[in-house]
Amino acid sequence: MKEFNESHKLFDENGWRIPNGIYETFSEKPNWFFKLGDEIFDDKTAIERIYKYQNINKKTITFEALNEVENKINSNTSFRDINKGLKVPFFIKKTKFDDIGTYFEENLLEQVSKSFTDFHPESHFKAIIQDKTDLKKKLFPTKNSGYDDFINRLSKSDICGYYFPQVLQEYSVDAQTTQMKDLKNISNICLSGPIEVSSSLIGNPNLLINKKYYSPVLCLSGVTHIDERLISCFKSYGRHLEFWCLSQMLSKGKKQVSEQWSGGISIYTEC
């Protein structure tokens, strides 16, 4: 991970990306009405669940790599406050695929569903796609999100890291991408997308299940749908978990900015 400018603070005391009046957000500062799950696993438990559901036999090297990621975050004064927000680990085996949508729909969604319903047998997982077709040839790395680099690295090596799911809470989808320009000199970082968020959900099936509060909608803004009116996201519905491909439009030419929508940042390394 390259060093980056430490001249200004990027994250507040909750690990939220400070917009500094530049980026479009629902409010100047979230009130955190929407909360993540109340039973988040420790890293060891989460990684072992990922190993189980993705048939991986890899042990201590993953935790050493995760420790390296955390140390590099903490070593930078402008960036380290991202660690004040909740983060969850992910691990993905070296994988090369021709199409994100096909790989996500035919492999990862099934694994997310299996992990979730095994842990919550009384609940369901379902995928709802706005145009009622499929995701084949419809999801592409968002420009300037860093997700194309993430996929390229994954084609060459196993990858592990941390997903920060609420770092961009209340940011518009466009602003989630635009704020990445401040991080362009940092390697091994991307706007979160379907591949590592799925891994995180496999490891933490409770990530969006909260007994007392509504949970945020986890935007997968590292990818863009071929129909740019649509966004991809994971959300809860009561005690259930769902994937949605839904419209972000309030009206023709006007996109919504939602208090509930939350973009993520993923920081990773080879392992």
List the topology elements.
Elements: H1 43-53, H2 60-74, E1 88-92, H3 100-119, E2 125-129, E3 139-141, H4 147-154, E4 159-169, H5 173-178, E5 189-191, H6 194-203, E6 217-219, E7 223-225, E8 230-237, E9 240-247, E10 249-251, E11 254-255, E12 261-270
Parallel strand pairs: 2-9, 6-12
Antiparallel strand pairs: 1-4, 3-7, 4-12, 5-12, 6-8, 8-9, 10-11
Characterise this structure:
It is a single chain. The model is unreliable at 1-6 (pLDDT under 50). A hairpin with a 2-residue loop joins strand 10 and strand 11 (254-255). The protein is an alpha+beta fold and 271 residues long. The longest helix is centred in the middle third of the chain and has 20 residues, at 100-119. Helices cover 26% and strands 24% of the residues. It has one domain (43-270). The strands form three sheets. Strands 1, 2, 4, 5, 6, 8, 9 and 12 form an eight-stranded mixed β-sheet that branches. It has a two-stranded antiparallel ribbon with strand order 3-7. It has six helices and twelve strands.
Précis, in short:
The chain is built from 6 helices and 12 strands.
Structural class: alpha+beta
Helicity, in percent? 25-40%
Q: Which shape, going by the Cα principal axes? A: globular
H/E element sequence = HHEHEEHEHEHEEEEEEE
According to DSSP, the number of beta strands is: 12
Q: What are the key terms here?
A:
6 helices, disordered N terminus, single chain, alpha+beta, 12 strands, eight-stranded mixed beta sheet
